[in-house]
Amino acid sequence: MGATAQTAIESFKANIYNSRCAQALLCGIACHLAAYFVAILPLAAINTSFYSVASHWWALLHPTSWLYLLVIVGLTCAMGFIHAAWYSVKPITFSSWLNCMAHLTSKHILGTIASHMVISAFLMRSYLGLFGSTEIANLFVPCQDDKNHKCINEKHLFLVCQAAFSSIFASVSYFCDNRNLVTFPVAQQPLSERLTNVLKGNLWMATMENLQTMKWFYLFYFLHGNWLCGFFTNNIDVAREGVAVDSVFGLLSVTLFLNAFTLGTLSRFVFQMGLSIFETFQTEALTLEVKSTQEAASPMAMTAAMEATSCPLLQHLAFLDFSELARRGADRRAPAFSLSQPGGHPHTFNQLATSSLGQITSLTQRLETALAPPSDNNNSPPVAANKPDFTGLRDLTGGAPPRPAAAPKRSEVAVLLDRLRGWLERRPLLGALLTEWPDSRPAAALADGRPALWAVSGLSALGVASLTEDRYGVAQRHLGPLLRALLELAAVLERVRRLAGCAGRGGGGAPVPRLASGLRAATATALFRLTATFGPHLRSLGLSDKELARLEPYRLYTEG
Amino acid sequence: MGLRACPDGGRQRLCSLSQLSPELAVSGPHVQEAGGRLQVAPLPLTDQLNVTIRPDAVRSSTKVGTVENAFLATEETTTSRLLASWHRAGISGVLDDLASGRAADSLPGWARRLVALLTTLVRLPYTASISSPLSVSVPGAPAGAVVRRVAWHPHTTRLAVVLRDDSIRVYQTQAPTVPLIKHRLQRRVADLHWKPHSASLLAVACERCVLVWTLEPNSVITRPPGSCAQTLTAPGHAPVSCVQWSPLGDLLVSASPGDGALILWNVAEETHVPLSRVWWLGNTLCRWSPDGSKVLGATTGQTFRVWETVRWMDERYRGPVSGARMTLPSSLLWTEVWETVRWTDERYRGPVSGARMTPLPSPVDRVWETARWTDERYRGPVSGARMSCACWSPDGQTALFATAGEPVVYSLSFVPILLNDSAPRPVPVIDLTSSPPEADETREARARREALRVGTEIAALSWDSTGRRLAVSFVDCNAVAIFATDLHPHLRITPCGVLRGSVDEVVMDITFQQNLQDTASLCVVSEQMELKQCQVRKFRSFLRKNNEAPFTVKKAVWDSALNASILYSCETWMTGSLKPVDQMYQHTLKDLVGVRYQTPSDLIYVETGIPPLSARVGQMQRNFLMKLQASTHFEGSPVQKAIQLARMHACPMGQYIEKLLGSPHLSSPVAALSEAWSSGRIQQVPMLVSATASGGLLGGLLAAAPAGPATPLRPSASLLSPSVSGASGLASPPANVTGSLMSPVEQAGGRTPGSILSPGGVQLFSVNDSP
User: Fold this and answer.
1) Chain B residues 229-248 with CB within 8 Å of chain A
2) N or C: which end of chain B has fewer CB within 10 A?
3) Residue B620 contacts by C-beta under 8 Å, 6 or more apart in sequence?
4) DSSP state of A118
5) Are B268 and A520 in contact (CB < 8 Å)?
6) Taking CB atoms and an 8 Å limit, are B314 and A521 in contact across chains?
7) B25, B452 contact by CB (below 8 A)
């Protein structure tokens, strides 16, 4: 990564990233408060009556309410900062269950899960305090027998513990189920429309997930509720009275269930909406200057941004803009085919093509390495797999990308450890934990293949457009290498497909199979377009006979 | 707008067929255009697909019809019926059942009104589409059409054909096989489209989803498995009426009358986003411009929208915010609406000064609800009419469209004109209204008018890839109007001719072959119908339009209009095969009763009291011969001589006449049924009983059937009396059963119980709804 790329990153963070983060934070806070005030209505219906809704709204003017509101705003900001630190543009892949467990039990992630628990518990406490219902608002209430003594409000405790418990599930899903993945939209719609589109889905997801976790928490509280209450009654001078919530009758309370359902869903919904808002703001397309790094007036030119490997978000946005050149008019593409002055060199197209071809060939090599037999893998550089790459953390620290480690020299101890591992893998239960999933290595190699996908579509679009728009022939030199790279990529993707057993269909819900399917489609489309456009001239591109023979089915539209 | 409709007509005069000479209305299997004139081609073109589909090779879709009407209603709890409705058609099915089913009678008045209101709300997006025959089905396609839709591959000579049974066949030049595509979700196929820059992907718009088939070009598999299909579903996005790939092939857009949003799919990654939703309208049509810069979406209402595809902007109602006001004078509301014009460039930069108000010329009423260039909404030119079809010019700068109910083609041009800052607006460019007959019309003038007469409603528009020819087809019409077009410097449209099929043809679909560079080949899919089939179509049309008419009226029309036509001169058919006419007879009879075609015909004969065709024709022939013999001129006539010779030599004709004259009177259906029993044709009934729900009448036939085990019937449905159920000794029908069958529909005007009576009036068995 050169100095221009570093400048582009700094410019991006100063002018765009921070601004978008601030906007997302403000939008998140507004969304959070709006969701709470909407949820007041069912809360009031559950706990008191509709008549008291007005009193709840009136109570918002009380300074105590302001404090709770401030706490809610602060906790929203804390959640936003945590997500800004842990978001990623690359999906997480695991090689085995053990790898997944090891990932979850790392100290950073455990700390984050704990932070989520604390934030959720405080958030629930603030909801209850702001709502102000006497039945569930406070942890300690005057005892009914003796007003001078305080008793523990078990319903309050139940709801706060449920929020903390639910956040564990949400955090595990966040780190293991790619909830922290920032996905780029199918179409660049306006922000308001994108947020409207995700609203319904997020509400449904929050409701379902909350119901799922509630059943486990009910069981948990039934078993350990006494211990939780005992913690307060033993250490603080409070008493328990009435029907215990951790009993069967206590847990069957309809009011308690409705409160837990409403507030739990609200908490989940706010968390999910926060992720969606961040994603919506950060994936808004940039329109970068299509000029070589030497000529660009803006420090954030497309050519420089495509080299910004230490800021994957900027790199993704640059390649996204590059792929959108196909959709834009000829005016937007014209600078790519222009010559730099003085000298009349095609620096712009050279830099664009070099960056794009680099992405394509790099992905091809990583996939070939991942598909090679394990014996060969020992001497080859390991795929940057199985190690989640959190873009946000890297952005915060400004660190360089992890370099491929040099091939370690295998000692006798390592050989012994391998043998031990092999022996353990053959054990019935341990084997399930230790055995490496067969497609884990290609999946890890494919995980950061999104820029390559955009590079394929963008470069092929420029190649096709060069037939009519390239007045100086700047693109011709790159057509041969591009077709060669696409053929190699198509071949290796076909091997990945056979390994994964996808049988030509788009993958299920996981992001990596979907990405692989998208890559296959983009590569095939690019080959069809280029061969159809340059069909009569393919022999002039310096391709071998074997490569020409492989291109022939694409030219004749007989390739499936 | 820089638009000139006709070269000689100037800007104000619309292009019409009246400028054509009648010689330009040509017909023939192969027609070519030379020098701007249509003429019959002597030979078929080379490299042409020869596609022949036999109608009898295609079954009707069993998924569309319902078997409920074929059987007597059974007792069923309300809960189970509502559950069945829920499984079959979701919430709308439940509401329909509550609103119109038997449960409606037990509901109080307020509940019925509430259900009706809910039904209206739930089905609001469908309302416009249901009231129109164009809805989800193929425009202009009758229900019985063998071919419903075709789609050319954009790069190869490959044609996908949607058949009546919702299967798809793919034809290809020099291909060893013709793949037949079926899928359990492939129902009510409304549209299909090949993916550009791909050899194998075909998107199919189905009732519940979009199916994307991967069809290997070199595969020899004739029946691709279901695993070759990718299913795309979105909540509430059904039924899908239109699919279109983007010109780059990376995105797919689909429209559904049940969904207010067009859905944009990334098929490879199985992700989708809705485009700005309109809650109260569904979408019927979507068309991607060939340059990929715009998407046109037609709704079930008058409004249609155009998106630009870079930012997919939705700025429809920002007029008041940005300062540009839209004023609707009360006197002009919905009839003449003012437009708010504001010019912005491709990227939104906020309001541009100079917004002004311009009245649109009357009498064309249109709403221009737009604040900026992108994602504009237009209101169709005719009140209450929605866009029925549309196409884009090859350069993506002009869209042509037609609305339902009028034969006028409108143009929407996006070509920026210097010194003209107004936004694009629809302009009528072609008027295809047929001229009315004049009082003192000469024979030549009438012939000219008839030669150039086309339909009253446009069904499809197709523009060839060179932008030089435009084809227009019409609903329920055998004509295709061809126009020569020129896009530069501005749109010019000149009538070229009328391609007319034979009288018994109806044009189903038109599409230009897309892989031709310099020439154009128009593929016209027409439904070949015999003249008698035209009567069948007319009768089906009558049934559709008069669905609520009493059965007796429908039967009278069937007898007097249809049968009189299809049985015309049947007295002379003698040993000729009745099969072609019998099929029409049986099908229309089942249409009359409202059951699907798979229902056994014998059941229908018994249920309606109508004799089979063979009996009917035989009776007419017998009457004819008896009358002939009784005439005074018969003796010594050549006919008598011929009949005598035939009977003497016992040739087939003679045997037939002998049998005819010696057979008893067969006018009653029970006699015909008796004949059917004796011939063993009734044996098929038990098998069908076991395959479908049971009913009392079926049970009776089962008991009388000569073979086959007695299929157990549900107690609640089988209402045979024990004595009759035990009378399985009726291995063959009693020879003296010549009693009359009281037609149940004639008795009570509905599917109510019927009975077969013995000659002495003893009831053999009865069929009743109530136990």
Assistant:
1) 230, 248
2) C
3) B567, B570, B571
4) H
5) yes
6) no
7) yes
Tokens 């050519």, residue located? A303
- Choose the closest CB to A187 out of B198, B267, B273: B273
Give B214's contacts in chain A (Cβ within 8 Å): 504-505, 560
Please give the pLDDT value at position A29. 93
**Cα distance between residue B205 and residue B193, in whole Å:** 9
Instruction: Write the secondary structure of B378-434 as one string of H (helix), E (strand) and C (coil).
Output: EECCCCCCCEEEEEECCCCCEEEEEECCCCEEEEEECCCECCECCCCCEEEEEECCC
End-to-end CA distance of chain B: give it in Å, rounded: 74
Q: Assess A189–B contact: CB distance below 8 Å, yes or no.
A: yes
- Which contiguous run of DSSP H or E holds residue B569? none
Whole-angstrom distance, CA of residue A263 vs CA of residue B435? 70
For residue B334, the model assigns a pLDDT of 26
pLDDT in tens, A402-455: 454 455 566 778 788 878 877 777 777 777 777 777 778 888 888 889 999 999
Cβ <8 Å between A557 and B156: yes
| Residue of A181, A183, A186 to mutate, interface with B, max B Cβ within 10 Å | A186
Report ipTM for this prediction: 0.85
Q: What is the pTM of this model?
A: 0.72
Sequence-distant (≥ 6) Cβ neighbours of residue B122 within 8 angstroms: B91, B92, B95
Low-confidence ranges of chain B (pLDDT < 70): 1-13, 22-23, 28-29, 42-50, 52, 54-75, 88-89, 100-106, 120-145, 313-385, 416-424, 504, 528-533, 663-771
Type of residue at B380: G
pLDDT tens-digit map of A209-219:
999 999 999 99
**Which H or E run contains B474?**
strand B469-474
Quote helix, strand, coil % in chain A, to nearest 5.
70, 0, 30
Q: CB B275 to CB A187 under 8 A?
A: yes
- Residues 200-219 of chain B with CB under 8 A from chain A are 200, 214, 216-219
A525: nearest CA partner in chain B:
B197
Helix, strand, coil % over all residues of chain B, rounded to 5: 30, 25, 50
Q: Are B660 and B628 in contact (CB under 8 A)?
A: no
Q: Which residues of B touch A505 (CB under 8 A)?
A: 214, 227, 230
Partner B contacted by A324 (CB < 8 A) = yes
Decide if B251 and A517 are in contact by the 8 Å CB cutoff: no
Kind plus residue range of the DSSP H or E element containing A150: strand A150-152
- Determine, for residues A506 and B268 on separate chains, whether the beta-carbon distance falls below 8 Å: yes
HEC assignment per residue over A168-217? HHHHHHHHHCCCCECCCCCCCCCHHHHHHHHHHHHHHHHHHHHHHHHHHH
The helix/strand count (H/E) of chain A reads as 23, 2
Q: Which of A219, A200, A444, A465 is nearest to A324 (CA)?
A: A465
Q: Taking residues A223-231, what's their average pLDDT?
A: 86
A558 touches chain B (CB under 8 A): yes
For residue A340, list its beta bridge partners. Answer: A345
Using alpha carbons only, how large is chain B's radius of gyration in Å? 30
Integer Cα distance of B107 and B115 in angstroms: 10
- CA distances to B240, B265, B326, B371, B392 from B306, rounded to whole Å, are 19, 18, 20, 13, 12
> Tens of pLDDT along A285-315?
888 888 877 777 777 888 889 988 889 999 9
- Residue A492 in this model has a pLDDT that exceeds 50: yes
Residue among B754, B708, B756, B709 at smallest CA distance from B734: B756
The owner of tokens 């136990």 is: B771
Residue A297: predicted pLDDT? 75
Paired tokens of B487: 């896009």
